[in-house]
Amino acid sequence: MTKSLLQNNLRIKASLCNLLNNQNFILAIWVALALAVSIKQAFQPTNNNYLIFKYVYLHAVERLPLYDFYFSQYQDSNHYGPFFSLVIAPFAKLPDYLGMLFWQLANIGFLFFAVKQLPLGKNKVNLVFWIITHELLTAMFGLQFNISITAIIVLAYVFIVQGKNFWAAFVIMLGTFVKLYGIVGLAFFFFAKQKPKFILYCIFWAAVMFAAPMLFFSPAYILQCYHDWFVSLSEKQNLNASLNSMQDISVMGMARRISGYASLPNLPFILGGLLLFGLPYLRIKYYKNEVFRLLILASTLIFTVIFSNSSESPTYIVAFTGVAVWFVVQDRPLKPIVIFLFIFAFVLTSLSPSDLFPRYLKEAYVKPYSLKALPCILIWLAIIYQLIVEKFKLKPIQHTNE
Protein backbone atom coordinates (compact mmCIF):
# COMPACT_ATOMS: atom_id res chain seq x y z
CA MET A 1 0.00 0.00 0.00
CA THR A 2 2.82 2.36 0.91
CA LYS A 3 4.69 1.47 -2.28
CA SER A 4 1.58 2.09 -4.39
CA LEU A 5 1.01 5.47 -2.68
CA LEU A 6 4.62 6.44 -3.32
CA GLN A 7 4.31 5.51 -6.99
CA ASN A 8 1.12 7.59 -7.29
CA ASN A 9 2.86 10.55 -5.68
CA LEU A 10 5.76 10.22 -8.09
CA ARG A 11 3.38 10.06 -11.06
CA ILE A 12 1.52 13.15 -9.83
CA LYS A 13 4.79 15.00 -9.31
CA ALA A 14 6.02 14.01 -12.78
CA SER A 15 2.74 15.11 -14.35
CA LEU A 16 2.89 18.44 -12.53
CA CYS A 17 6.50 19.01 -13.63
CA ASN A 18 5.56 18.22 -17.23
CA LEU A 19 2.63 20.63 -17.06
CA LEU A 20 4.72 23.46 -15.57
CA ASN A 21 7.35 22.84 -18.24
CA ASN A 22 4.82 22.93 -21.08
CA GLN A 23 5.14 26.19 -23.01
CA ASN A 24 1.57 25.98 -24.31
CA PHE A 25 0.37 25.81 -20.70
CA ILE A 26 2.53 28.80 -19.76
CA LEU A 27 1.19 30.80 -22.69
CA ALA A 28 -2.36 29.81 -21.72
CA ILE A 29 -1.73 31.17 -18.19
CA TRP A 30 -0.46 34.44 -19.66
CA VAL A 31 -3.49 34.71 -21.95
CA ALA A 32 -5.86 33.99 -19.05
CA LEU A 33 -4.17 36.73 -17.00
CA ALA A 34 -4.46 39.15 -19.93
CA LEU A 35 -8.16 38.35 -20.27
CA ALA A 36 -8.80 38.81 -16.52
CA VAL A 37 -6.88 42.10 -16.40
CA SER A 38 -8.61 43.44 -19.51
CA ILE A 39 -12.05 42.67 -18.08
CA LYS A 40 -11.13 44.41 -14.82
CA GLN A 41 -9.58 47.44 -16.55
CA ALA A 42 -12.54 47.83 -18.90
CA PHE A 43 -14.58 48.98 -15.88
CA GLN A 44 -11.93 51.37 -14.53
CA PRO A 45 -12.21 55.19 -14.75
CA THR A 46 -10.99 56.82 -17.95
CA ASN A 47 -7.52 57.72 -16.66
CA ASN A 48 -5.73 54.59 -17.86
CA ASN A 49 -2.80 54.17 -20.21
CA TYR A 50 -4.82 52.53 -22.95
CA LEU A 51 -6.84 55.73 -23.47
CA ILE A 52 -3.61 57.73 -23.69
CA PHE A 53 -2.38 55.29 -26.33
CA LYS A 54 -5.68 55.29 -28.22
CA TYR A 55 -5.83 59.06 -28.40
CA VAL A 56 -2.32 59.29 -29.87
CA TYR A 57 -3.92 57.93 -33.02
CA LEU A 58 -7.22 59.79 -32.71
CA HIS A 59 -5.50 63.11 -32.05
CA ALA A 60 -3.14 62.54 -34.97
CA VAL A 61 -6.13 61.94 -37.27
CA GLU A 62 -7.57 65.30 -36.15
CA ARG A 63 -4.12 66.99 -36.32
CA LEU A 64 -4.34 67.92 -32.64
CA PRO A 65 -1.22 68.36 -30.45
CA LEU A 66 -0.06 64.94 -29.26
CA TYR A 67 1.60 66.13 -26.06
CA ASP A 68 -0.92 68.47 -24.47
CA PHE A 69 -2.61 67.61 -21.18
CA TYR A 70 -6.09 66.30 -22.04
CA PHE A 71 -8.02 66.43 -18.79
CA SER A 72 -11.44 65.50 -20.16
CA GLN A 73 -10.22 62.41 -22.01
CA TYR A 74 -7.61 60.77 -19.79
CA GLN A 75 -6.34 63.34 -17.27
CA ASP A 76 -2.74 62.97 -18.37
CA SER A 77 -0.37 63.66 -21.26
CA ASN A 78 1.24 61.40 -23.84
CA HIS A 79 4.99 60.78 -23.99
CA TYR A 80 5.17 58.33 -26.89
CA GLY A 81 6.63 59.24 -30.27
CA PRO A 82 4.60 60.18 -33.36
CA PHE A 83 5.36 56.75 -34.90
CA PHE A 84 3.33 55.20 -32.07
CA SER A 85 0.19 56.58 -33.73
CA LEU A 86 0.65 53.90 -36.41
CA VAL A 87 1.46 51.13 -33.92
CA ILE A 88 -1.69 51.73 -31.87
CA ALA A 89 -4.00 52.43 -34.85
CA PRO A 90 -5.38 48.88 -35.31
CA PHE A 91 -6.34 48.75 -31.62
CA ALA A 92 -7.68 52.32 -31.45
CA LYS A 93 -10.23 51.54 -34.14
CA LEU A 94 -11.83 48.85 -31.97
CA PRO A 95 -14.25 49.33 -29.06
CA ASP A 96 -12.20 49.97 -25.91
CA TYR A 97 -12.89 46.60 -24.29
CA LEU A 98 -11.68 44.76 -27.42
CA GLY A 99 -8.84 47.18 -28.07
CA MET A 100 -7.49 46.68 -24.54
CA LEU A 101 -7.73 42.91 -24.78
CA PHE A 102 -5.98 42.65 -28.14
CA TRP A 103 -3.40 45.21 -27.00
CA GLN A 104 -2.58 43.01 -24.01
CA LEU A 105 -2.47 39.88 -26.15
CA ALA A 106 -0.19 41.54 -28.71
CA ASN A 107 2.23 42.64 -25.99
CA ILE A 108 2.42 39.31 -24.16
CA GLY A 109 2.61 37.38 -27.42
CA PHE A 110 5.54 39.53 -28.51
CA LEU A 111 7.34 39.00 -25.20
CA PHE A 112 6.62 35.25 -25.21
CA PHE A 113 8.05 34.97 -28.72
CA ALA A 114 11.14 37.00 -27.78
CA VAL A 115 12.00 35.06 -24.62
CA LYS A 116 11.49 31.78 -26.47
CA GLN A 117 14.26 32.80 -28.89
CA LEU A 118 16.88 33.12 -26.12
CA PRO A 119 19.82 30.75 -26.57
CA LEU A 120 19.05 28.75 -23.44
CA GLY A 121 17.84 25.20 -22.90
CA LYS A 122 14.07 24.75 -22.94
CA ASN A 123 13.87 24.29 -19.16
CA LYS A 124 15.74 27.54 -18.54
CA VAL A 125 13.57 29.44 -21.00
CA ASN A 126 10.49 28.13 -19.19
CA LEU A 127 11.99 29.16 -15.86
CA VAL A 128 12.40 32.70 -17.23
CA PHE A 129 8.71 32.64 -18.22
CA TRP A 130 7.62 31.66 -14.70
CA ILE A 131 9.97 34.08 -12.94
CA ILE A 132 8.64 37.11 -14.83
CA THR A 133 4.95 36.15 -14.73
CA HIS A 134 4.04 38.18 -11.64
CA GLU A 135 5.96 41.22 -12.85
CA LEU A 136 4.23 40.78 -16.20
CA LEU A 137 0.90 40.93 -14.38
CA THR A 138 1.90 44.25 -12.79
CA ALA A 139 2.75 45.63 -16.24
CA MET A 140 -0.54 44.34 -17.67
CA PHE A 141 -2.53 46.18 -14.99
CA GLY A 142 -0.85 49.34 -16.29
CA LEU A 143 -1.62 48.29 -19.91
CA GLN A 144 2.06 48.95 -20.44
CA PHE A 145 4.03 49.02 -23.69
CA ASN A 146 7.05 48.18 -21.52
CA ILE A 147 6.16 44.52 -22.07
CA SER A 148 6.98 45.04 -25.74
CA ILE A 149 10.02 47.17 -24.90
CA THR A 150 11.34 44.12 -23.02
CA ALA A 151 10.69 41.97 -26.08
CA ILE A 152 12.42 44.54 -28.31
CA ILE A 153 15.60 44.55 -26.20
CA VAL A 154 15.66 40.74 -25.99
CA LEU A 155 15.10 40.37 -29.75
CA ALA A 156 17.75 43.00 -30.50
CA TYR A 157 20.20 40.77 -28.63
CA VAL A 158 18.95 37.55 -30.25
CA PHE A 159 18.98 38.90 -33.80
CA ILE A 160 22.43 40.46 -33.43
CA VAL A 161 24.07 37.28 -32.11
CA GLN A 162 22.28 35.31 -34.84
CA GLY A 163 23.68 37.66 -37.47
CA LYS A 164 20.20 38.95 -38.46
CA ASN A 165 21.26 42.58 -38.63
CA PHE A 166 18.29 43.72 -40.72
CA TRP A 167 15.77 42.61 -38.10
CA ALA A 168 17.96 43.68 -35.19
CA ALA A 169 18.05 47.21 -36.62
CA PHE A 170 14.28 47.07 -37.16
CA VAL A 171 13.40 46.25 -33.53
CA ILE A 172 15.93 48.72 -32.15
CA MET A 173 14.54 51.58 -34.23
CA LEU A 174 10.97 50.49 -33.44
CA GLY A 175 11.66 50.79 -29.71
CA THR A 176 13.49 54.08 -30.21
CA PHE A 177 10.78 55.78 -32.25
CA VAL A 178 8.05 54.62 -29.89
CA LYS A 179 9.58 55.20 -26.46
CA LEU A 180 13.35 55.86 -26.81
CA TYR A 181 14.16 52.89 -24.54
CA GLY A 182 14.74 50.74 -27.61
CA ILE A 183 17.99 52.59 -28.30
CA VAL A 184 19.67 50.49 -25.58
CA GLY A 185 19.61 47.61 -28.06
CA LEU A 186 22.76 49.22 -29.47
CA ALA A 187 24.51 47.88 -26.35
CA PHE A 188 24.89 44.63 -28.33
CA PHE A 189 26.58 46.37 -31.28
CA PHE A 190 29.97 44.86 -30.43
CA PHE A 191 28.54 41.35 -30.86
CA ALA A 192 27.32 42.16 -34.38
CA LYS A 193 28.82 40.62 -37.48
CA GLN A 194 29.24 42.95 -40.48
CA LYS A 195 29.00 46.09 -38.36
CA PRO A 196 28.97 48.57 -41.29
CA LYS A 197 25.94 46.78 -42.74
CA PHE A 198 24.24 46.87 -39.33
CA ILE A 199 24.80 50.64 -39.13
CA LEU A 200 23.31 51.10 -42.62
CA TYR A 201 20.26 49.04 -41.63
CA CYS A 202 19.79 51.24 -38.55
CA ILE A 203 19.94 54.37 -40.71
CA PHE A 204 17.47 52.82 -43.17
CA TRP A 205 14.92 51.87 -40.49
CA ALA A 206 15.35 55.21 -38.71
CA ALA A 207 14.51 57.03 -41.95
CA VAL A 208 11.51 54.76 -42.59
CA MET A 209 10.06 55.19 -39.10
CA PHE A 210 10.76 58.91 -39.01
CA ALA A 211 8.91 59.45 -42.28
CA ALA A 212 6.17 56.79 -42.04
CA PRO A 213 3.67 58.93 -40.05
CA MET A 214 4.04 61.64 -42.68
CA LEU A 215 2.42 59.31 -45.23
CA PHE A 216 -0.78 59.29 -43.15
CA PHE A 217 -0.64 62.77 -41.63
CA SER A 218 0.91 65.96 -42.98
CA PRO A 219 4.73 66.28 -42.88
CA ALA A 220 4.53 69.69 -41.21
CA TYR A 221 2.26 68.32 -38.49
CA ILE A 222 4.55 65.33 -37.79
CA LEU A 223 7.68 67.50 -37.71
CA GLN A 224 5.97 69.72 -35.14
CA CYS A 225 5.07 66.58 -33.17
CA TYR A 226 8.71 65.49 -33.08
CA HIS A 227 9.66 68.89 -31.66
CA ASP A 228 6.85 68.71 -29.11
CA TRP A 229 7.90 65.16 -28.17
CA PHE A 230 11.41 66.35 -27.32
CA VAL A 231 10.02 69.18 -25.20
CA SER A 232 7.58 66.89 -23.38
CA LEU A 233 10.30 64.37 -22.54
CA SER A 234 12.53 67.12 -21.16
CA GLU A 235 9.70 68.44 -18.99
CA LYS A 236 8.82 64.92 -17.84
CA GLN A 237 12.36 64.35 -16.56
CA ASN A 238 12.05 67.41 -14.35
CA LEU A 239 8.60 66.42 -13.06
CA ASN A 240 9.75 62.89 -12.20
CA ALA A 241 12.68 64.12 -10.13
CA SER A 242 10.61 64.74 -7.01
CA LEU A 243 10.10 63.19 -3.59
CA ASN A 244 6.50 62.11 -4.18
CA SER A 245 6.26 61.06 -7.83
CA MET A 246 4.95 57.58 -8.66
CA GLN A 247 7.95 57.37 -10.97
CA ASP A 248 11.69 57.78 -10.34
CA ILE A 249 11.97 54.23 -8.95
CA SER A 250 15.66 54.28 -9.75
CA VAL A 251 19.13 54.74 -8.31
CA MET A 252 18.61 58.49 -8.40
CA GLY A 253 15.11 58.23 -6.96
CA MET A 254 16.35 56.19 -4.01
CA ALA A 255 19.13 58.69 -3.37
CA ARG A 256 16.77 61.66 -3.61
CA ARG A 257 14.10 60.18 -1.38
CA ILE A 258 16.39 58.72 1.27
CA SER A 259 18.36 61.98 1.49
CA GLY A 260 15.26 64.18 1.18
CA TYR A 261 17.12 66.29 -1.40
CA ALA A 262 14.77 66.59 -4.40
CA SER A 263 17.24 68.65 -6.46
CA LEU A 264 19.89 65.92 -6.50
CA PRO A 265 21.03 65.84 -10.15
CA ASN A 266 20.80 62.76 -12.36
CA LEU A 267 24.02 63.29 -14.28
CA PRO A 268 26.61 62.05 -11.71
CA PHE A 269 24.63 58.85 -11.20
CA ILE A 270 24.16 58.25 -14.91
CA LEU A 271 27.83 58.89 -15.70
CA GLY A 272 28.88 56.53 -12.92
CA GLY A 273 26.40 53.93 -14.15
CA LEU A 274 27.63 54.24 -17.74
CA LEU A 275 31.23 53.82 -16.61
CA LEU A 276 30.42 50.59 -14.76
CA PHE A 277 28.16 49.41 -17.58
CA GLY A 278 30.94 49.91 -20.13
CA LEU A 279 33.81 48.26 -18.22
CA PRO A 280 32.93 44.65 -19.22
CA TYR A 281 33.26 45.58 -22.90
CA LEU A 282 37.01 45.81 -22.37
CA ARG A 283 37.08 41.99 -22.08
CA ILE A 284 36.98 41.50 -25.84
CA LYS A 285 38.18 37.89 -25.76
CA TYR A 286 34.94 36.82 -24.09
CA TYR A 287 32.62 38.33 -26.70
CA LYS A 288 31.98 34.88 -28.17
CA ASN A 289 31.12 33.32 -24.82
CA GLU A 290 27.36 32.94 -24.55
CA VAL A 291 27.14 33.31 -20.76
CA PHE A 292 29.16 36.54 -20.99
CA ARG A 293 26.83 37.85 -23.70
CA LEU A 294 23.69 36.82 -21.79
CA LEU A 295 24.99 38.62 -18.72
CA ILE A 296 25.45 41.71 -20.90
CA LEU A 297 21.80 41.29 -21.92
CA ALA A 298 20.76 41.00 -18.26
CA SER A 299 22.87 44.06 -17.39
CA THR A 300 21.29 46.06 -20.22
CA LEU A 301 17.72 45.18 -19.24
CA ILE A 302 18.32 46.18 -15.62
CA PHE A 303 20.44 49.26 -16.39
CA THR A 304 17.72 50.65 -18.66
CA VAL A 305 15.32 50.84 -15.71
CA ILE A 306 17.43 51.60 -12.65
CA PHE A 307 19.12 54.59 -14.29
CA SER A 308 15.93 56.15 -15.64
CA ASN A 309 13.95 58.54 -13.49
CA SER A 310 10.93 57.78 -15.69
CA SER A 311 10.85 54.26 -14.22
CA GLU A 312 7.65 53.34 -12.41
CA SER A 313 6.45 50.07 -10.97
CA PRO A 314 5.14 48.57 -14.25
CA THR A 315 8.43 49.44 -15.97
CA TYR A 316 10.12 46.72 -13.94
CA ILE A 317 9.01 44.00 -16.34
CA VAL A 318 12.09 45.15 -18.28
CA ALA A 319 14.47 44.90 -15.32
CA PHE A 320 12.96 41.75 -13.89
CA THR A 321 13.46 39.92 -17.17
CA GLY A 322 17.12 40.83 -16.74
CA VAL A 323 17.02 39.39 -13.22
CA ALA A 324 15.53 36.17 -14.63
CA VAL A 325 18.20 35.85 -17.33
CA TRP A 326 20.93 36.48 -14.74
CA PHE A 327 19.48 33.83 -12.44
CA VAL A 328 19.13 31.04 -15.00
CA VAL A 329 22.69 31.36 -16.34
CA GLN A 330 24.31 31.03 -12.89
CA ASP A 331 26.39 27.92 -12.26
CA ARG A 332 24.72 25.11 -10.37
CA PRO A 333 24.69 24.48 -7.48
CA LEU A 334 23.67 28.05 -6.84
CA LYS A 335 25.79 30.13 -4.48
CA PRO A 336 24.00 31.33 -1.32
CA ILE A 337 24.43 34.96 -2.38
CA VAL A 338 22.67 34.23 -5.69
CA ILE A 339 19.76 32.56 -3.89
CA PHE A 340 19.51 35.45 -1.41
CA LEU A 341 19.55 38.16 -4.10
CA PHE A 342 16.97 36.34 -6.19
CA ILE A 343 14.56 35.84 -3.28
CA PHE A 344 15.13 39.43 -2.18
CA ALA A 345 14.29 40.64 -5.70
CA PHE A 346 11.23 38.46 -6.01
CA VAL A 347 9.83 39.64 -2.68
CA LEU A 348 10.74 43.33 -2.73
CA THR A 349 10.72 44.11 -6.45
CA SER A 350 8.05 41.79 -7.82
CA LEU A 351 5.67 41.23 -4.92
CA SER A 352 5.79 44.66 -3.24
CA PRO A 353 3.15 46.29 -5.52
CA SER A 354 0.69 43.47 -4.83
CA ASP A 355 -1.66 42.61 -1.99
CA LEU A 356 0.66 39.72 -1.10
CA PHE A 357 3.09 42.25 0.39
CA PRO A 358 2.41 43.83 3.82
CA ARG A 359 0.56 47.08 3.18
CA TYR A 360 2.24 48.94 6.04
CA LEU A 361 5.74 48.18 4.76
CA LYS A 362 4.71 49.13 1.24
CA GLU A 363 3.23 52.49 2.24
CA ALA A 364 5.77 53.40 4.94
CA TYR A 365 9.01 52.31 3.25
CA VAL A 366 8.87 50.79 -0.23
CA LYS A 367 6.98 53.57 -2.03
CA PRO A 368 8.40 56.60 -0.17
CA TYR A 369 12.01 55.48 -0.69
CA SER A 370 11.75 53.79 -4.13
CA LEU A 371 12.91 50.52 -2.55
CA LYS A 372 11.45 48.45 -5.38
CA ALA A 373 14.67 49.38 -7.19
CA LEU A 374 17.05 48.18 -4.46
CA PRO A 375 17.27 44.43 -5.28
CA CYS A 376 17.71 45.17 -8.98
CA ILE A 377 20.50 47.63 -8.19
CA LEU A 378 22.31 45.01 -6.09
CA ILE A 379 21.87 42.33 -8.75
CA TRP A 380 23.10 44.71 -11.44
CA LEU A 381 26.24 45.41 -9.39
CA ALA A 382 26.69 41.64 -8.94
CA ILE A 383 26.40 41.19 -12.72
CA ILE A 384 28.99 43.90 -13.38
CA TYR A 385 31.33 42.29 -10.86
CA GLN A 386 30.84 38.89 -12.49
CA LEU A 387 31.43 40.31 -15.98
CA ILE A 388 34.61 42.06 -14.87
CA VAL A 389 36.30 39.33 -12.79
CA GLU A 390 34.98 35.92 -13.87
CA LYS A 391 36.96 33.78 -16.27
CA PHE A 392 34.46 32.61 -18.85
CA LYS A 393 35.05 29.55 -21.03
CA LEU A 394 36.33 30.37 -24.47
CA LYS A 395 34.90 27.27 -26.16
CA PRO A 396 31.32 27.23 -27.52
CA ILE A 397 28.56 26.29 -25.07
CA GLN A 398 26.50 23.19 -25.76
CA HIS A 399 22.80 23.66 -24.98
CA THR A 400 20.73 21.03 -23.25
CA ASN A 401 17.21 21.02 -21.87
CA GLU A 402 18.53 21.12 -18.33
Automatic annotation (TrEMBL):
GO terms for molecular function: glycosyltransferase activity. The chain crosses the membrane at residues 20-39, 97-115, 127-160, 166-191, 198-222, 258-279, 291-307, 313-329, 336-357, 369-388. Its EC number is 2.4.-.-. Keywords: Cell membrane, Glycosyltransferase, Membrane, Transferase, Transmembrane, Transmembrane helix. It is a multi-pass membrane protein. Coiled coil: none annotated. Its main location: membrane. Belongs to the glycosyltransferase 87 family. This is Glycosyltransferase family 87 protein. It comes from Pedobacter albus.
